[in-house]
Amino acid sequence: MAETPERESMEFDLVIVGGGPAGLSAAIRFKQLASEAGEDLSVVVIEKGGEIGAHILSGVVMDPVGLDQLIPDWRTRDDRPLKTEVTDDKFIFLGPGGAADISWLPMPDFMKNHGNFTGSLANLTRWLGAEAEKLGVEVFPGFAASELVYDDKGAVKGIVAGVMGTGADGQPKDDYQPGMELLGKYVLFAEGARGSLSKQLISKFNLDEGRDPQKYGIGLKEVWSVPEANFKEGYVQHTMGWPLDNKTGGGSFLYHFRDNGEPFITVGFVVHLNYANPYISPYDEFQRFKHHELGLPLPQGRQAGCLWRARHHRGRLPVCPQARLPGRRADRLRRGLRQRAPHQGQP
Ligand SMILES: Cc1cc2nc3c(=O)[nH]c(=O)nc-3n(C[C@H](O)[C@H](O)[C@H](O)COP(=O)(O)OP(=O)(O)OC[C@H]3O[C@@H](n4cnc5c(N)ncnc54)[C@H](O)[C@@H]3O)c2cc1C
Questions:
Q1: 8 Å CB contact between 256 and 297
Q2: Candidates 139, 191, 199, 218: which one to mutate for ligand 1, based on the most atoms within 8 Å of Cβ?
Q3: 56, 116, 222, best to mutate for ligand 1 pocket (most atoms within 8 Å of CB)
């Protein structure tokens, strides 16, 4: 085997793993606070998706309270990422042959959507990525953080990103590239649900001791491009009940929103993973749900051109890193990571 290349390292004030809404919001807030204090602090965000937003699948109907605080002028900006305010919010209980609108029942606040927005969380995340870059955050999509780096007292001091050429047995192959160590005074893990490094940290530092176990679900989503006749801007609907049995948690979501002026419907289905029937397939339950006459209320009917151009959100997206960073320091990081990435340059 060829000689193993040496691993370089770079230091930052804050290293953030995961360029989702949480990681990018934290990066933005950190930069805002640093600027208020007159400090120029360095922040890097490492994102394993080929571009920011590539791994973000959510619906989304969203309470904008956090965004109002983070970027107070977002509602008046032309490039704002959420434009469709919720106009009608329905909660429906489905049975095999019928449906009951239970929206009139008193619901907890987190289940009420008036005042919320609907749209694409991937678009919102891309927008947050651009806002972070404007503030000087170094955003690197296309690189997974794959290892933790500890100091001699056992505290986390960084991560390793951009490792390539490891075999299925975990051993380096001939084309092995060691990636880079990104070291931070603070390291923030914003990997979303079941992050691979977060799992190691939870286990090493017993972070789940005395806590309830995590509960997981699988969510599937499609985005439909629909004719205006089948579109009701701002309509939000959730269902529970059929096709799931009464021992299985979950249900459907359906949001009507515009993107670049075009009408879209996001439709999805969530199944909680504590179901008792081992034969349940969340994907098939989603397909069954779509055949319920009342589950998908489309004014012109389901056959009127809705199912064409449905986009399933399950596959991998192309790798095309979009870091645009000024300065020699950024050049070094970009070079260090990219020279180690044989797949760069693919569309
Ligand atoms: C189908 C579905 C529908 C949903 N609908 C709604 C909704 O309508 N409204 C709502 O408010 N919420 C909704 N959610 C929940 C919402 O998506 C999450 O709460 C939100 O995305 C969490 O943000 P996050 O930044 O913590 O994690 P994530 O959005 O999961 O982002 C984590 C990011 O970190 C990256 N990452 C992970 N590990 C690494 C690593 N080791 N190295 C580099 N990068 C890494 C991932 O690629 C990802 O981009 C939905 C979720 C799903 C799945």
A1: no
A2: 191
A3: 56
Report the nearest atom of ligand 1 relative to the CA of 56: 29
* Strands in 197-326 per DSSP E: 217-225, 235-241, 250-259, 262-272, 310-312
Does the bond joining 60 to the residue before it have cis omega, within 30 degrees of 0? yes
The pTM for the full model equals 0.86
Domain made up of 84-118+215-312: CATH architecture: 2-Layer Sandwich (3.30)
Q: Which atom of ligand 1 is nearest to the CA of 268?
A: 1
- For ligand 1, whether the C-beta of 282 sits within 6 Å is no
Domain ranges in the chain with CATH number 3.30.9.90: 84-118+215-312
Q: Is 228 exposed, middle or buried (0-12, 13-18, 19+ CB in 10 A)?
A: exposed
8-56+125-212+317-338 belongs to CATH 1.20.1250.10? no
Span from the CA of 192 to the centroid of ligand 1 (angstroms): 5
The pLDDT of residue 303: 37
172 lines ligand 1 (CB under 6 A): no
For the chain, give every residue range classified as CATH 3.50.50.60. 8-56+125-212+317-338
Tens digit of pLDDT for each residue in 143-160? Answer: 999 999 999 999 999 999
Better-scored residue on pLDDT, 249 or 111: 249
Backbone dihedral region of 55: left (phi > 0), alpha (psi from -120 to 50 degrees) or beta? alpha
* Ligand 1 site, residue 51, Cβ cutoff 6 A: no
Q: Which residues are CB-contacts of 125 (< 8 A; sequence separation ≥ 6)?
A: 19, 20, 21, 24, 52, 53, 56
25, 47, 58: which to mutate for ligand 1, most atoms within 8 A of CB?
Answer: 58
